[in-house]
Write a structure and sequence with these properties.
The chain has 318 residues and is mainly alpha-helical. The chain has helices at 2-15, 17-36, 40-53, 59-74, 77-88, 95-121, 125-144, 148-168, 173-253, 267-277, 282-308. It is rod-shaped. 19% of the residues are buried. The model is unreliable at 1-14 (pLDDT under 50).
Length: 318
């Protein structure tokens, strides 16, 4: 009976609205105190009991728990370094870093889940705007260490979150500043990429021009070499021809005198040809030749007689 009364009292204390409100207010007060003292781990524990165990719907408390988790996951530079190292080389982490990375991932998950909940369902537009702003900050932080193929997607996500934050609350100056700053950074990044692309094109153009010049120079050198070779070949051929001519002349000069010379025509045959040119028959030519021969004989005989007769000095020359 005594035990039953105790159970009834306990159940009554839990289900009694007044008791529940008193406990939730106490937990909320304790959590806020821990948060203000920057004891974020205790703050998260208290807010989790309030929101998850007691099922209290409190958007302010949820936002504070998300902010506390964010500060633990993203506010510690050493932890960020370990998380980056874990994403790049997880097998090289020692035990202490593995534990630190696990804690960081746990708090990052708590922050993201609660910001998602508030940005989607919060009735208070100021709180929804704050949640969107924080989501944008997380997306941008992730983009700073992301791989090239993921960087643009995360940057666009951050810009969209800042824009949604301003839609929920146009007076959110933090979101406006983040939105304008990120737009400026994106424009500068795009301009830098464009400049890099133009510089790359210029470098490629210069490299191609250099290659073309080198190839042109090489072609010209090959052409000059070929022309030189052709000229040398022609000169050598000319020298060879001249030498061959000299050798031929020398051979002609050194030819054996006993070597048969081309046979000359028979004198009678030549005479016959001459007579044909003069339209004179052989008989007539024979008569003329005999007459000339007789005349020559007479002349010779007369000369002989004159030469044998001595001159008489007592007589006149006549």
């Amino acid at each position: 009976m005594k035990y039953l009364i105790t159970l009834i009292l306990v159940f009554t204390s839990i289900t009694d609205p007044v008791t529940k409100i008193a406990k939730s207010n106490a937990l909320k007060k304790d959590a806020k105190a821990f948060y203000d003292e920057k004891n974020y781990e205790q703050a998260i524990t208290s807010y989790a009991r309030l929101l998850d165990s007691m099922l209290v719907e409190d958007e302010d408390a949820r936002l504070n728990m998300a902010n506390a988790a964010y500060l633990l996951a993203y506010g510690d530079k050493e932890l960020l370094g370990v998380l980056n190292e874990a994403s790049e080389n997880p097998d090289e982490l020692d035990e202490s870093k593995v534990e630190m990375a696990s804690e960081g991932l746990k708090y990052a998950s708590i922050a993201s889940n609660n910001y998602d909940e508030l940005s989607a369902n919060a009735q208070n537009k100021v709180i929804a705007s704050s949640a969107f702003n924080q989501k944008g900050i997380i997306a941008y932080k992730r983009s700073e260490t992301a791989k090239a193929e993921e960087k643009k997607s995360l940057t666009d996500q951050a810009l969209n979150d800042f824009k949604n934050s301003l839609r929920k609350n146009p007076e959110n100056e933090s979101a406006r500043y983040n939105y304008e700053l990120l737009k400026k950074l994106i424009r500068e990044q795009e301009q830098q990429e464009q400049n890099n692309e133009e510089n790359k094109d210029q470098e490629e153009k210069k490299d191609q021009e250099k290659k073309d010049q080198e190839q042109e120079k090489k072609d010209q050198e090959e052409k000059n070499d070929q022309e030189k070779k052709d000229q040398e070949k022609n000169e050598q051929e000319k020298k060879d021809q001249e030498q061959e001519k000299k050798d031929q002349q020398q051979n002609d000069e050194e030819q054996d005198p006993n070597e048969e010379k081309p046979q000359e025509k028979d004198p009678l045959e030549k005479l016959k040809e001459k007579l044909e040119e003069m339209n004179m028959s052989p008989e007539k030519a024979q008569m003329i030749l005999e007459a000339m021969k007789n005349n020559e004989i007479q002349y010779v005989q007369q000369n002989k007689r004159k030469a044998t007769k001595k001159k008489d000095s007592s007589k006149p020359d006549w």
